[in-house]
Amino acid sequence: MTTFVELLLGGLSMGSVYALIALGFVVIFKATEVVNFAHASLLLAGGYVTAVLHDDIGFWPALAVGIAGAAVVGSAVEYTVMRRYRGSDHSVLAIVTIGVDILLTTELTRRIGTDVLALGDPWGDKLLTIGDITIAQTRVAAFLAAALLITAFLLAFRHTTWGVAMRAAAENPQTAALMGVRLGRVSLSAWAVAGSLAAVAALFLTVFPTPGLERATSLAALKAFPAAILGGLDSTTGALAGGLIVGVTESFATGYQSDLTFLGRGFGDLAPYLVMVVVLLIRPAGLFGTKELARV
Amino acid sequence: MSDPTRTPRQFRAYAWLAGSLLLLALPFYLDRFWLQAGLFAMAAAIGAIGLNLLTGATGQLSMGHSFFLAVGAYGYCVLAGESGEENGRHLTGLGLPTWLAAVLAVLLAGAAGGLFSPIAGRLRGAYLGIATLALIFIGQHVLFNAGDLTGGFNGRDVPVLSLFGFDFDDTETVIAAVPFGSSEKLWYVGLSALLVGGLFARGVLRGRPGRAMNAIRDHRIAAGVMGVPVARYRAAVFVLSSMYAGLAGVLIALIFQRTVPDYFGMILALEYLAMIVIGGLGTVAGAVVGAAFVALLPQLLTHYSDSLPLVADPGGGGVTPGEASRYLYGAAIVAVVLFLPGGLTRLSVPTVRRFSGEKS
Amino acid sequence: MKRRARRTNAPRTGAALLVVLALALAGCSGKATEGDGKDSDGAAGGVKTGQGVSDKTISLGVLTDMTGVYASLGKSVTQAQQLWADQTNKAGGICGRTVELTVRDHGYDPQKAVAAYTELEPDVLGFAQFIGSPFVAAVEKRIDGQDKGLVLPQAWSANLLGSPYVRVVGATYDIETVNAIDYLLTNKRITKGDKIGHVYFEGDYGENALVGSEYAAEQAGLTVVEQKIKPTDNDMSAQVAALKKAGVKAVVLSAGPRQAASLVGVAAAGGFNVPIVGNNSAFAPQLLATAAGPALMKDYYIASSTLPIGSAEPAPKKLATEYAAAYPDDVLDNGVVSGWTAASLYGELLKTACENKDLTREGIDKALLGLDAFSTGFGITHDFSDPAAPSTRESVIMKPDSKVPGGLKVVQEARVAEPAQSFTFGG
């Protein structure tokens, strides 16, 4: 039972980090209908800035700069690349983001080289023990930070002018533009928000129990793909739910792998994708995604 | 009847002639290294043609192309290989004649595509793209875990292709004073496979099915209203594209002489997407040009790294050839989409007989 | 109709022309077999030479990974080998020739690795380094069948044994794991009837190590609790939880440095105080600067087939000083030692082959089979006379220590555990 609760808590906390990344995807997708495969490199950029600066200026300022840095990188990608595309095929734009990702990731991994960079977080390897259950403080912090950020984001999305503009643009870009919504700004801000969320996620992906930021860290962003899809690409609630489902699935599949040997070892990586496929078979637009009305 | 396209056509015929001549003669001159690079490019071109039918012409984003390559490659090994011990593992093999195994492996890849069609038929755009990403993860899991069939992490040996009693292996056959090893021999297999695959795809694209596919891409609902059986077409294209990937997989297995699971991962799938975007979406020529670009660029950069400025020797600090080629092809994807929306093929081919701008 | 006729005509004439031309041109191809100068008796000093050896130079290939998953290993090994080549050449070279390393970085991409092998193979005598055992396996048939150049892989899997041309320098992972477990047994950290955990990578490395731990467990009456992981898994919480639940008394780790940091860190933080032993690849000095550093120095051990670079013995000390002088920005780790050892082995073989007046691949091979006591001063003597066995069955046991360069100090000198002596390969 203790194991079960520990795995559940660990899964929820990792899931909330995945949700942060998935939320970034969803925001960009809502604003521009583009699937952003460059998300992994935004994450790496945010983490890298934090890791490099924390020794000189302290952890919290470094984190702030990291978040801002990732937002700047995100906006820069939007401004210099995405905005210049004149076609209308969103799959092509998705492939462009793959190109951007290759560029950014190559540059960042070249800089990181063979190092494992510590991020200088204040939690270290301390644990929180409640009764029989122990969980790393970083995991608790991750859960709280993610919950805070997601709530703040959802509130902003509902109630601020920016949120209204974003939702209007997602609903119908032409009409929104006619009503005075500046689509360029909406998409720029979407990329910035996605970048900052990814930077926060980078922090929690690289603190204890993982050793630190290194070149393979960006691979973790891959787990946010199934999270975003299974929740529904155009649903912020979906990103949250999807992230948690992926986190918990992965945690259980890894934690109970010795009981699941018939599925082959190392099943934890695969499980989120299998859940995604099953969900898509039943609901092609994800759990919370907008269903398509046309049927041909 | 006066024919305004006569001169370009003649020019084209001569260009084709010269090109084919060159391609046929290459094994007599090039080193094994370049032949192997060329063979990889051919295999990539076949796979890219398949992906271009699916993603370029029909507008269905697939990120799982390397899964079907793996089905082709491993399918061939299992069908043609003999059962036995290898590296202390028991491997299952059916021991079929290799040509039959190659054909069946392609069909097997098609069948795998067919199995995925309940999903492929229902999802679109990004959803389909990421759902196909699941295929890669499933594929990797199976390749590593189904040791009896795949040989696990170290892969398994690829049986030598044998056609009409002629073995495409490394035993030297001297033709016109030039010793022919496996690369020289396979070169012609690759060329014929590419030719057949290319012509067939061109036929599909230029004919009725091609128009239907483009209609589905450009406006799915309108295509349905006009009487295109959208769901059936999408499933069929998915199967066809998987078969192309399967063929590419068989060829790659033959070139490698061993299948290695690491190869069939996500990077490969992304490379295929890069190929069709760089070369030009929706055309056979685009797939071929893109494949040549993506497959040969790293080889060129590595081989000539000594004489290139800005590219350092590995270990010497600075940008290594591997990194340089990644920068270049990342930038190529971005630049092509932004500045050359038709891909590299638009650079050279004169715009003759083009009305919609989508076919060649 | 007219159009169609023209279209079919041209290719047919073309095809005919083509065949004629191709055959005609082939006559003057550089690839034609007559007198291509290879395998001729070289002039300099009556020494027989072959591929990769000219009158002035000896070329060795280096197939490494400096931009992929094994980047940190690849960089150290390659730079150490470059250092060896530079020093050798400064001292006058070998056999009156300078040694040249041609480096190709494949970034752990199978296609690039196979392409790089194909590219270098005709122009080098052999390979002083080849990272990535799946890729070695991919070209092994060619190495054994036709190329016959000596390849020294930077991998210690028993699957590589058996070929006369692909030779493992050091103990294989299975033997190393047996020695590591034996260290725990002799120090009374575990005893008969105990459970031990084994966290291992999927793939060659981990699965070969598992063979060793299962053998050792069978010999000593232990039970192995398996946890298979992937190289991309960086958080070992789940594995630690599972092993804790199973009540293991020690853990064997056959994974990378990142997994070591996470596993040791998580175990220590959770009060799961059992000894943890790792294979030679399960440590990097960079880890000591991370949060897991203190935990790693407490009860974590590494088994390896060389003395650590931080050892006070003359050879490691000299290498450490010289490497640090040549590459001041780079970390000193055990990759440096293993790269140096492999390169020195090649140097030794070249010298012997030179004395035998046979600098061909065959000559190198003969020299290797005659080499039954090779030592570079790193604590272990290698015997290469049997291709079916690793060059040694000994392992050094080390412990992380941030005060020594390279971050490792010796806790047990090289020795063979009794079960390792009787271990048979490929069982």
How would you describe what is shown here?
The complex is a heterotrimer of chains A (about 300), B (about 350) and C (about 425). Chain A has about 300 residues and is mostly helical. Chain A is about 65% helix and about 5% strand. Chain A has a domain at about 15-215. Chain A has eleven helices and two strands. A two-stranded antiparallel ribbon of chain A has the order 1-2. In chain A, helix 1 packs across helix 9 (about 225-230), helix 5 packs across helix 6 and helix 10 (about 235-255) crosses helix 11. The radius of gyration of chain A is 19 Å and the shape is globular. The model of chain A has no long low-confidence stretch (mean pLDDT about 85). Chain B has a domain at about 30-265. The radius of gyration of chain B is 21 Å and the shape is globular. Chain B starts with 5 loop residues before the first helix and ends in a 12-residue tail after the last helix. In chain C, strand 4, helix 4 and strand 5 form a beta-alpha-beta unit. In chain C, helix 5 packs parallel to helix 6. Helices cover about 40% and strands about 15% of the residues of chain C. A seven-stranded mixed β-sheet of chain C has the order 7-6-8-9-10-12-13, sandwiched between helices.
Please describe the topology of this protein:
The complex is a heterotrimer of chains A (296), B (360) and C (427).
Chain A: H1 2-32, H2 39-57, H3 59-80, H4 90-112, E1 127-130, E2 133-136, H5 137-159, H6 161-171, H7 173-178, H8 183-206, H9 224-231, H10 236-255, H11 271-282
Antiparallel strand pairs in A: 1-2
Helix pairs in contact in A: 1-5, 1-6, 1-8, 1-9, 1-10, 2-3, 2-4, 2-8, 3-8, 5-6, 5-8, 6-8, 9-10, 9-11, 10-11
Chain B: H1 6-25, H2 32-57, H3 65-80, E1 84-86, E2 89-91, H4 98-115, H5 117-120, H6 125-145, H7 147-150, E3 156-157, E4 162-163, E5 166-167, E6 173-175, E7 178-180, H8 182-206, H9 208-218, H10 220-225, H11 230-256, E8 258-259, H12 266-279, H13 284-303, H14 321-339, H15 345-348
Antiparallel strand pairs in B: 1-2, 3-8, 4-5, 6-7
Chain C: H1 2-26, E1 48-49, E2 57-64, H2 71-90, E3 98-105, H3 110-120, E4 126-130, H4 133-147, E5 151-153, H5 173-186, E6 195-201, H6 204-220, E7 223-229, H7 237-246, E8 250-254, H8 257-269, E9 276-278, H9 293-299, E10 300-304, H10 314-326, H11 334-355, E11 358-359, H12 361-369, E12 395-400, E13 408-415, H13 418-422
